[in-house]
Design goal:
With about 260 residues, the protein is mostly helical. The protein has one domain. The chain is built from eleven helices and no strands. Helix 4 packs across helix 6. The protein is globular, with a radius of gyration of 18 Å.
């Protein structure tokens, strides 16, 4: 096995270790610590895997005659179980911190608190409603495409935030991971674009990228205004918001075309 190939396997493993609860044994891939900075190109790959599991869950549920709302809920449950609600937790913390904090130190303090407040609960509930209801109106094939595209794009946007925004803290995962290198960013972008192109075609792919970038810029701009940078929680919130934005865009565009 070449060093390059071995490094790619390490990157994939590191991305799965960071973004999922799949019990991978890191010592089977390397004697050192995971290099999450080098692994960012694989974030969309992790998203695709999680989405495929959710899509299979959705298809199985509909094949048993379950209604779309139930199938959509089960698909989201599958995603939450695979990720350990990693991104949902970030969304809740951002909602609590940005909504309840009056100063920069207080916002960061609230975001580090493991307890979830009213803003966080509302944010999670609304996110779940939007995701489940969006999936519920789709056929199994369209749901699979929407899940894969939104999952990949939303995790790719995390890399863009890491690349182009400063960390809000001088410690923590966001600071320790460091700024992704351009080759990793481009690799993740190309992988995502190719998969989206295969599933959606050129015009819809470009439109989805625009929607994702707009959502990314919106949450990034809000984070800069609120805490002067990004944190791990901001990355989680950006993933959720971008995923919902792309999913709802596809639901709307397919509905309009019907």
């Amino acid at each position: 096995m070449s060093v390059r190939h071995h490094n790619h396997l390490q990157d994939l493993a590191a991305a799965f270790v960071l973004l999922t609860r799949i019990p991978l044994r890191w010592d089977r891939f390397s004697d050192g610590s995971p290099d999450f900075n080098r692994a960012v190109w694989a974030f969309p790959v992790v998203g695709a895997f999680v989405a495929i599991v959710a899509a299979v869950t959705f298809a199985m549920a509909t094949s048993f005659g379950l209604p779309g709302l139930v199938a959509g809920a089960l698909a989201i449950v599958a995603m939450v179980l695979l990720t350990g609600a990693f991104h949902e937790d970030g969304l809740a913390d951002v909602a609590d911190g940005f909504g309840g904090g009056k100063s920069l130190p207080r916002k960061l303090e609230i975001m580090r608190d493991s307890r979830v407040g009213a803003y966080g609960v509302i944010a999670i509930v609304l996110a779940m409603i939007l995701r489940v209801s969006g999936l519920s109106v789709l056929a199994a094939g369209d749901a699979a495409s929407a899940l894969i595209v939104s999952a990949m794009l939303s995790r790719l946007m995390m890399v863009y935030i890491m690349r182009y925004m400063p960390p809000a803290r001088k410690d923590g995962l966001a600071h320790d991971t460091g700024k992704p290198e351009m080759p990793q960013l481009l690799t993740g972008t190309v992988l995502t674009f190719v998969v989206c192109l295969f599933l959606l075609g050129p015009s819809t792919t470009v439109a989805c990228f625009i929607v994702a970038f707009v959502a990314c810029v919106a949450i990034g701009g809000l984070a800069m205004h609120q805490i002067n940078g990004f944190s791990g929680d901001v990355l989680g919130a950006s993933q959720q918001i971008t995923e919902i934005a792309v999913l709802l865009f596809l639901v709307g565009s397919w509905g309009a075309a019907a």
